[in-house]
Write the structure tokens for this entry.
Amino acid sequence: MLRFLNILSIALPIILAIFAFLLSLDSFEEGKTLEAQIFAFLVHNIPSLIILLTLFIAIQKPLMGFIGFLCMGISLLYTSTIRGGQENLVHAILPSLIISLPLLLISLLFLIKWLVMRKQSGSV
């Protein structure tokens, strides 16, 4: 079970980072200078880099991965409700669920991984 959790908890953030990277490709558009396009592309890739950095930390410390991915998922939901500005809260939250739900699922995987590792080491 631990092997499956290891593979899944590493593969899902990588897939999510690739998805966020693909979404950042919309920063290239006609009419902008090359410098502006490159800057916009780099800014759009900050979430992918944060996901990969959190994954790098989480591989060594699964509890930190749980906390990091949970904070990312909750903060994305929180900021989307504030920034949404719609009268209907559901319309503000639904688009951000595409990214925040996988983050919350990944945090749950790291929590389960930490609990399994803790149980196997005998420090219950």
